[in-house]
Each structure stands twice: as structure tokens, then as C-alpha cells.
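Pinned message: reference record for YceI family protein
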Amino acid sequence: MKALKSILAMALILTASHLFGQTNYVLNKDYKLTINGGSNLHDWTENVEKAAANASVTWNSNGTLTLNGLTVIVYVQSIKSSEGGVMNGKTYKALKSDSHPTITFTLTSPLQISGGGTTVSATGNLNIAGVTRGVTIRAKVNSIANNNISIEGVVPLRMSEFGIDPPNALFGALKVSNDISIQFKTNLVKS
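Predicted structure (C-alpha cells):
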């Protein structure tokens, strides 16, 4: 019985030290998240005005960090086109915002990050318009002042991979390309 109590006490201490070693982070308001694409007439850009992120980070004794978990949420109706309101409406319709109001990325494997300027391949699930696909995102990660974390990169995607028909306008005269890229520059700060 005494041995069992000792084992349970040790397990509790190890579990508690693991949990308390993790720090939660959120997306700072200074993020930049854009969707870039083209059409048969010209290139276009859409800016994301409302997004959120939650991350669980362990700072290791050797100065590296482990990104244990990350979830990023983009609110579809906060996506604003450089082309104005008509394109906004077409974007919301294509992304099925009435039934799927968010786009979500969830990290599926922890990332080991060493020093400044580490380039990583983050694997996770990306859900767009109700369709979830496994993706690998290449990003540059830096730890910056006050243990904040900056992450930036570009993600190339094809709309059709998520069951999205590229929008068109002007009675089909303007046809949007299937290929897009999501460009992001973010800072995660302690919550």
C-alpha cells in the first residue's frame, strides 16, 4: 500500500510539472492574414479582419520551445476583398459561410523549435467550407521579446480540394483561378 501511494504521488508530481510547464498563447491584434488569387482579368487580394488563435507552448531548459498545440480560427464574414462588396458576397457564398462561418487550422503534431528563424513544417487539419483536409504548412518561427512568438509563411491551396467552385462575375466573363495562397504574419503572446 505504501509503495502504491509513492507511485501515485510521483505520477501526480510528474503530471503537474508537465501541465504547469506549458504556457498558453493567443493571437496578438497586429496579425496580417491575406488571401491572394487571380482571375482571367487581374490578380486580387482579400484581407482577414477577424481571426483568433490559441497555442500551448513549453519553453525547454535548453532555450528551445515545443509548440504542443495550435488552433487558428478565421471568421469567414470578416474576409474583405480589394474588389469590394460584390466579391465579398461571392466569397462568402463560395465558402458556405451561412453553414460554415469559420475556417479552422488545428496542429496535429507537436513542433520542436530551436532559436531564432527556425523554418518548420507544421502538419495539421484545415477545415474550409465544411471540408477537412490534412495539410503541411511551411512557416518561419521566431521567439521575440518577452517570449512572444512570431510565425510567418505562405500556404498554397486549390479551392477545388475543399469542394469550392471558384467564383465568377460579370455573367461568367470574370473567372477566378482555382489556385490561391494564404499569406500570414502573426505574433502569439502569453494569454
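Pinned by admin. Summary line: The two ends are 42 Å apart (CA to CA).
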